[in-house]
Amino acid sequence: MILIEAAPRILRAVLASVIVVLALGGIPGAVLHDVLREQVAPPVHADVKDRDGALDVTVRDRASGVPVRGARVQALALLGGQAYLAAARDVDARGVAHLAALPHGETWVLANAPGRARASTHLVVEG
């Protein structure tokens, strides 16, 4: 009788253990795959004219104002309804990235840094 009464508790404990192992550790011996992959936009076509726009982007920690080292800044130009990579640079020790040869028009600027959320802004580049 004691074994029959304990069966539901034992079953719940085993099921909880299996869920924890799968959620935290996966299946032993299984290959892990990246869930998110870096999306790369195609570069701006060479025949695009009016590429004299430039931006100096400063990446700083919002709370402290300290420059974020290791950040990567990208400018995505929206041309004909599609996004194209117009420029990409790593920030320097001051947290600044200079993006040059940007086409005129609508642009998204993205900043990524390891261990931090992505920041972005939408603007219009003019000559």
What does this protein structure show overall?
By secondary structure, the protein is an alpha+beta fold. The protein is 19% helix and 35% strand. It contains one helix and six strands; from the N terminus they run H-E-E-E-E-E-E. The strands form two sheets. It has a four-stranded antiparallel beta sheet, with no helix packed on it. A two-stranded antiparallel sheet has the order 1-4.
Strand order of the largest sheet: 3-2-5-6
Instruction: State the major sheet.
Output: 4 strands, antiparallel
The 3D shape can be described as elongated
- Gyration radius over CA: 24 Å
The SS-based structural class is alpha+beta
Helicity, as a percent range: 10-25%
Tally of DSSP helical segments: 1
Beta-strand residue fraction = 35-45%
The total count of strands amounts to 6
Mean pLDDT across the residues is: 84
Helix and strand element order:
HEEEEEE
- Low-pLDDT stretches are none
N- and C-termini, Cα separation:
85 Å
